[in-house]
Amino acid sequence: MDLYDAINRRRDTRAEFTGEPVLEETLARVLSAAHAAPSVGLSQPWDFVLVRDLETRRRFRDHVLQEREVFAGTLPPERAGTFSRIKVEGICEASLGVVVGYDPGRGGQHVLGRHAIADAGLYSVCCAIQNLWLSATAEGLGVGWVSLYREDFLRELVGLPAHVRPVAWLCLGTVADLPDIPDLERHGWRHRSPLETVVHEGRYRGAGPQATSS
Ligand SMILES: Cc1cc2nc3c(=O)[nH]c(=O)nc-3n(C[C@H](O)[C@H](O)[C@H](O)COP(=O)(O)O)c2cc1C
Questions:
Q1: Ligand 1 neighbourhood includes 184 CB (under 6 angstroms)
Q2: Which of 38, 75, 181, 206 is the most buried (most CB within 10 A)?
Q3: Nearest by Cα to 48 from 34, 63, 64
Q4: Which keywords does UniProt give here (predicted)?
């Protein structure tokens, strides 16, 4: 698969996991791709906790389902109806979970490029996640990013130290297929905006038409 194929085939995966184990050498390639990501000051501030144990995954899934209800409670009735039809995780159905952590202490006291923008460390972790996601796609695997959780709960669940921030729970695994259309579009939650609404020539020219909706 070439890079653009992987970019276009990549999908957030929830219902398509088969639960078959991922070959260890494949997992190693996917994690190596994540670890090859760019990072501010070459700090490589990420950690990956591999969660295979089903009981831990069940506990996390139950927590996510609670948070789903919290979010649902904030929605007006029509949006709540649409949201009720959307699956937001495949935690137990995936082959494994990958908790991605951000360690701001990595890279020492003087991280080159982070003195004015502390978030640059977090951006680096997101680069690693995207590398992982694209690599998994090229390997024929699915990835689903879950963010409906409280950070303290996840930190405690997988034993991250207090200074390591959980950035994502990634459901990773073998899939029956990857859908062509994102779930949120298929359910009418939200649609992708055209490229021209977000490209600005020279100076920012005002909010795109979809910027404030829902
Ligand atoms: C930071 C981040 C957090 C996300 N959190 C969730 C989540 O909690 N549950 C979920 O079902 N999808 C989650 N997603 C996936 C998005 O819904 C998905 O990327 C988007 O709808 C576009 O679909 P696609 O990834 O298939 O192109 C998340 C994606 C990102 C980048």
A1: yes
A2: 75
A3: 34
A4: Flavoprotein, FMN, Oxidoreductase
pTM check: above 0.85:
yes
Å from CA of 146 to ligand 1 middle: 7
Q: Which of 155, 164, 203, 192 is nearest to 8 (CA)?
A: 192
Q: What is the maximal distance between C-alpha atoms in the chain?
A: 53
8 Å CB contact between 145 and 129: yes
| CA gyration radius, the chain | 18
Q: Is the minimum distance from the CB of 14 to ligand 1 under 6 angstroms? A: yes
Domains of the chain with bracketed CATH: 3-184 (3.40.109.10)
Find out whether 148 and 91 touch, Cβ atoms under 8 Å: no
Work out which ligand 1 atom sits closest to the CA atom of 13.
26
Q: What is the pLDDT along the chain (214 residues), one digit of tens a residue?
A: 899 999 999 999 999 999 999 999 999 999 999 999 999 999 999 999 999 999 999 999 999 999 999 999 999 999 999 999 999 999 999 999 999 999 999 999 999 999 999 999 999 999 999 999 999 999 999 999 999 999 999 999 999 999 999 999 999 999 999 999 999 999 999 999 999 999 999 999 876 555 444 4
d(CA 202, CA 183): 34
